[in-house]
């Protein structure tokens, strides 16, 4: 008997078996790990396009913006520089209701951070308006009258200084009020739900009104180019993506690896 033939066939067989089983293992495992639906606080059964909370990144839409965290029972998402609490996820309208975590317990957080959504998968959908907050403002000039669109003053205290701020609805740049507000040391843009900005009607609003409105949150619509994934989910599959390439992938529960796109792409 040829002494080298048997070992080479043996190794070929072993490598083939390894490829088949490892593929099956990876494939089955992806379906299982992506079918995990974590909950956090009042938000139940979190699924695609989100990941985090034990759902691997490969189980979400290929954009790091869809990562969620659960922080002591509060579902959180980071969009650009700011962290938001997620109050509601509506899958069918693809709307996320969020509120700024740092404005949850006061109008004077540190550091001061703008809410921005450029280059993120989340966008304002016309249901919020930006409120401008001005911090550390000089005394109002005697000949300047503030309109009801400028709030009553609020105080921010640090260990060494107390400062005065205002929040305003609308853009006053190029007007005497805008010139005055431009002298304030800092400004922040904060979206509020359109249903809450009635707080500017009638009397000039007080800081408590803004805190209340900030806690109620506002809507953001998410955009993902993933029609194909909806078909996958509707047919009982789990959608995700291939890390690195960002290609969407449908993990099917019962399919054999021999017919899956995963197998075709990576093993053949
Ligand atoms: C949203 O859709 C996914 C995928 O169909 C589903 O698993 C999940 O339970 C739904 N709900 C939430 C809150 O994500
Ligand atoms: C999701 O949004 C749709 C369309 O706006 C609405 O009809 C539906 O009631 C919402 N679902 C939940 C659970 O709020
Ligand atoms: C809000 O989102 C819905 C669904 O994505 C869209 O049909 C509608 O035109 C959007 N409204 C605005 C004002 O952008
Ligand atoms: C208010 O008074 C200042 C000087 O104290 C002057 O520079 C400014 O133009 C005045 N503004 C208005 C709106 O009259
Ligand atoms: C800031 O204001 C508080 C109360 O309004 C006062 O007790 C404190 O002494 C003030 N701090 C400074 C540095 O003025
Ligand atoms: C927020 O944005 C405004 C307008 O772009 C800018 O003037 C301001 O400095 C920004 N504030 C912070 C804290 O980054
Ligand atoms: C959406 O994805 C498809 C492939 O999955 C691609 O051909 C198309 O260009 C994408 N569209 C946008 C707007 O990115
Ligand atoms: C997996 O599901 C997708 C979407 O339903 C389907 O197009 C594909 O053929 C399925 N793959 C296998 C191997 O069954």
Q: What does the secondary structure layout of this molecule look like, with pairings?
A:
Layout: H1 5-34, E1 68-71, E2 74-79, E3 82-90, E4 95-100, E5 122-124, E6 128-135, E7 154-157, E8 162-169, H2 176-181, E9 186-193, H3 207-216, E10 218-222, H4 227-234, E11 238-241, E12 248-251, H5 261-266
This protein binds 2-acetamido-2-deoxy-beta-D-glucopyranose (8 copies).
One 2-acetamido-2-deoxy-beta-D-glucopyranose binds at residues 37, 45-48, 89, 91, 233.
Structural class: alpha+beta
Record field, number of beta strands = 12
Q: Report the bound ligands by name, code or SMILES.
A: 2-acetamido-2-deoxy-beta-D-glucopyranose
Q: In percent terms, what proportion of residues is strand?
A: 25-35%
Question: How many domains make up the 3D coordinates?
Answer: 2
- How many strands, which pairing sense, and closed or not: the largest β-sheet? 6 strands, antiparallel
Based on CA atoms alone, the radius of gyration comes out at 26 Å
What would the principal axes of the Cα set say about the shape? Answer: elongated
Across the major sheet, the strand order is 1-2-3-4-10-5
- Residues in helices, as a percent range: 10-25%
Unreliable spans are 19-26, 255-268
Distance N to C terminus? 33 Å
Estimate the mean pLDDT confidence: 86
Number of helices: 5
What order do the SSEs take from the amino end to the carboxyl end, as H and E? HEEEEEEEEHEHEHEEH
Subcellular location: Membrane
Keywords: Glycoprotein, Membrane, Signal, Transmembrane, Transmembrane helix
Catalytic activity: L-seryl-[protein] + ATP = O-phospho-L-seryl-[protein] + ADP + H(+); L-threonyl-[protein] + ATP = O-phospho-L-threonyl-[protein] + ADP + H(+)
Protein name: non-specific serine/threonine protein kinase
